Amino acid sequence: MKKVYATAGEALDGLLHDGMFIAAGGFGLCGIPELLIDALVESNVKDLTIASNNCGVDGFGLGKLLDTRQIRKMISSYVGENAEFMRQYLSGELELEFNPQGTLAERMRAGGAGIPGFYTKTGVGTVIAEGKEVKNFDGQDYILERGIVADLSIVKAWKADDTGNLVFRKTARNFNPPAAMCGRVCVAEVEEIVPRGSLDPDLIHLPGIYVHRIIQGSHEKRIEQRTTRKKEAV
Fold first, then answer.
1. Which of 28, 82, 218, 229, CA to CA, is 20 to 30 A from 75?
2. How far apart, in Å, are the Cα atoms of 201 and each of 165, 182, 186, 204, 205?
């Protein structure tokens, strides 16, 4: 089965349709599948529901899909870095389903593991719990959260072999493994494709069984917020 494709557009060919549900890896601008996002913009696919920790920043990452009005609904835990996101949400142009960060990660992981739902204390007694089943275990209330199964997952990794085994680099690992797991089809962009057998099996973060298509490319890797220490006087 061929998994390596030449471009992001080719890797997404035949997978996209209006109204689809996409799970996207990354955290802020760290480890985001920026080439695949650009290909989504170029495809003009619309009415998307996207599950991602956040929606990038204005004009970059998933923020590009906000600019082109291709997103109908976001399932996210943080939206504070994107003014256009805030504008669309407050004006009623964009639907938003808030999820606590750990809950969102576990919803993705659960969906990928074939678990349709789980109970968690996170959000009990808050607006997060509204409309959800509550069950008491050992005298404590828990709310039912559903696992996420997406039509498509798009993720970013550091290295891959041609079978789709992925290695993520440091904090860029973030939401990428659970996002990759929960997609019926997963497309990964990587910085380097290495020969089969060259990856240490103990260092593989996501096995290739979850990954269906791969592209290699160059990435901009923006810094979301640069914080530096002032130079000390000599």
1. 218
2. 9, 22, 20, 5, 9
